[in-house]
Description:
Layout: H1 4-7, E1 9-10, E2 15-16, H2 21-31, E3 35-39, E4 45-50, H3 51-57, H4 70-73, E5 81-82, H5 87-96, E6 101-106, E7 109-115, H6 116-122, H7 125-135
Helix pairs in contact: 5-7
Amino acid sequence: MATAEDIMHPGVQWIPTHETLDRAAQLMRELDVGALPVSDQNERMCGIITDRDIVVECVAQGLDPSRITCGDLSLGTPRWVGSDADVGEVLEEMQDHQIRRLPVIKDKRLVGMISEADLAQHLSEEQIAAFVERVYAH
């Protein structure tokens, strides 16, 4: 069976907790991604910032994205999966926590990210349908 490393998008870039949301948005545009893992000063993952987070939690509330840091929105326990996890474990983690992007860790380092697009390229139609039903269920 395929592993997380087999289906992930490699080469993920961090953004530090002290960076502002406007910088996160610029970096997302440069990298053509919708999410960035957020790291503390020790390069430990402490969350993920998404384009939706920036819009809903900052802009839509009338806050200034040049004054709000990535750390301000990186609350809670970040979810991740080991690079050797099988696809079933990846799906379970994403479905159980209703998340659309999942960081991949190898030897305590971030090595990639799994998104819905990555899943779509590697799963059967039945697996994708079950994933969508569970992740988007409210």
